[in-house]
Specification:
The chain is α/β, with parallel strands linked by helices. The chain has two domains: about 350 residues, ANL, N-terminal domain (Rossmann fold, 3-Layer(aba) Sandwich); about 110 residues, GMP Synthetase, Chain A, domain 3 (2-Layer Sandwich), CATH 3.30.300.30. The chain is built from twelve helices and 26 strands. A nine-stranded mixed sheet has the order 2-1-8-7-9-10-11-12-13, with helices on both faces. The protein has a five-stranded mixed sheet with strand order 3-4-5-6-16, with helices on both faces. It has a four-stranded antiparallel sheet with strand order 14-15-19-20. The radius of gyration is 23 Å and the shape is globular.
Length: about 475
């Protein structure tokens, strides 16, 4: 992995400084190096980790990528049968990257050696979320993450003096990357055994946290409850968010709760790594709303191409395509030809967007697009606008069958407090969303529509509407 040489350096230079904290457990740089070195003696060519956050997880992860070994991190919340099936496939899957003479799989340097292997070799097998079927498996080279580290450390301003809290599961790529980035940079990394608002607030208050890495839903919870409970976040200097665009309510709460923090948001994909990003400095006014998600990330070239690979002019939407040294190697399995694609040297995962005045605007997946009366509408754009309406906690939009329009835009909303009316929603969208993109029917949701694997689903929303489910009540 592209952080082991650095870990050895930090263990030599700062052996007793804190490297990792998980809940109440702590490891210094020397502790982490020594524990991982022992584990590396028996590490296999491929290690599979499917467990919750712990310092043991961190030690095994470090050992698992020593030399030219590779690691696959699975979501421990997956059904046991799915974990078993994925694990069997991973054991049988060939390694990618450089091969040893005779075609043997690379098994690394001498046992117990914590050094980075050849940059071209695979160190990580990433897996998609697996919401409806067997997740796709893709691979990352050591070089791709070192390039990513150098770019993200510079963009986010990470220093050795920072203390990063990423309170989510390490099985999620956002948090696993944050851990790895901190090990590379020599900065202390904190996480929780499981996400808990009170535990996160305690870490911020008592551990000197200067940096948060989290998804928008977590940021809203921490900010709003922190404000209500008087939790001091003035020492937080940067907040880094990914997963979805920040809405106005979350931005405003975060700014009030952590007034000295620069707020970063970025767009990326597991197979592409970073694509674009933006920073809102602490002393600048909020500019919420819209679909803009920043300029190309350092080291990334960005173009909007049509399905034939032809460039599109500014303002016209198409495939978001990149060229960078951070792109993954491709898939071990699951490539259906519509996921990671290469269009004349430019890579895309099918996300749609457009560039205007140098800013990338994210619209969503092409497969999610609603065609209503000949107009293309992306649910993501509708959801962002609805989430900015006062009194709305979250929103989800979808395309329902319609005899006249082909499809019609419908939306479900979860109120933040009290009751909500259709008139309130329609009025709230003025200036936020073009009239031909607005929902024709609204529903108040008692809960978000989820799959049995815990993912928000537009198809489940449509099923609720079709079957008159009491969890989706129509607004007049």
């Amino acid at each position: 992995m592209p952080f082991l040489n650095k870990l050895q350096l930090w263990a030599d230079e700062h052996p007793y400084d804190t490297a990792v904290v998980v809940g109440n457990a702590r490891r210094t740089w020397a502790d982490l190096r020594d524990a991982a070195s022992v584990l590396a003696r028996d590490a296999k060519a491929t290690t599979i980790l499917a467990e919750r956050n712990s310092v043991d997880f961190v030690e095994r992860y470090v050992a698992a990528v020593s030399g030219e070994r590779r690691c696959a991190v699975l979501d421990p919340e997956w059904p046991e049968a799915l974990i078993d099936e994925v694990s069997l496939r991973l054991v049988d899957a060939p390694a990618t990257g450089r091969k040893k003479p005779g075609g043997a799989e690379p098994t690394g340097l001498p046992a117990g050696t914590l050094v980075d292997g050849d940059p071209t070799t695979t160190f990580l097998v990433g897996l998609t979320s697996g919401t409806t079927a067997m997740p796709k498996a893709f691979t990352r080279s050591r070089r791709s993450w070192q390039v990513s580290f150098d770019a993200s450390i510079a963009f986010f301003g990470l220093t050795r003096q920072d203390r990063t809290l990423a309170p989510g599961p390490l099985s999620a790529s956002l948090n696993l990357y944050a851990l790895s980035e901190c090990l590379y940079a020599g900065a202390a990394f904190h996480t929780l055994e499981s996400f808990d608002v009170g535990d996160a607030h305690a870490a911020i208050s008592h551990d000197g946290i200067t940096r948060l890495v989290l998804v928008p839903t977590m940021l809203r919870l921490l900010s709003e409850r922190g404000l209500a409970g008087g939790v001091d976040a003035s020492g937080v200097r940067s907040i880094i968010c990914a997963g979805s665009k920040l809405d106005a309510r979350t931005l405003e709460a975060a700014r009030r709760w952590a007034p000295n923090a620069a707020i970063f948001e970025y767009y990326g994909a597991s197979e592409l790594s970073f694509v674009s990003g933006t920073e809102l400095p602490a002393d600048q006014p909020l500019d919420a709303g819209g679909t803009g998600i920043g300029s190309p990330f350092p080291g990334v070239e960005l173009k909007i191409l049509d399905d034939a690979g032809q460039p599109l002019p500014d303002g016209e939407h198409g495939n978001i395509c990149v060229r960078s040294g951070m792109v993954s190697n491709g898939y071990l399995w699951g490539d259906d030809g519509h996921a990671l694609r290469c269009l004349d040297g430019w890579y895309t995962v099918g996300d749609q967007g457009f560039v205007k005045n140098g800013i990338l605007n994210m619209l969503g997946r092409q497969s999610d697009m609603i065609i209503t009366a000949g107009k293309n509408v992306y649910p993501h754009e509708v959801e962002l606008a609805l989430a900015s309406v006062p009194g709305i906690d979250t929103a989800i939009a979808a395309g329902a069958p319609d005899d006249i329009r082909g499809q019609k835009v419908v939306a479900g909303v979860v109120p933040a407090y009290g009751a909500v009316t259709a008139t309130q929603l329609r009025t709230g969208l003025d200036g936020l969303l073009a009239r031909d993109k607005r929902p024709v029917q609204y529903y108040v949701l008692s809960e978000l529509p989820m799959t049995d694997r815990g993912k928000i689903s537009r198809n489940v929303l449509l099923d609720w509407i079709k079957n008159h489910d009491p969890r989706a009540v129509p607004l007049g």
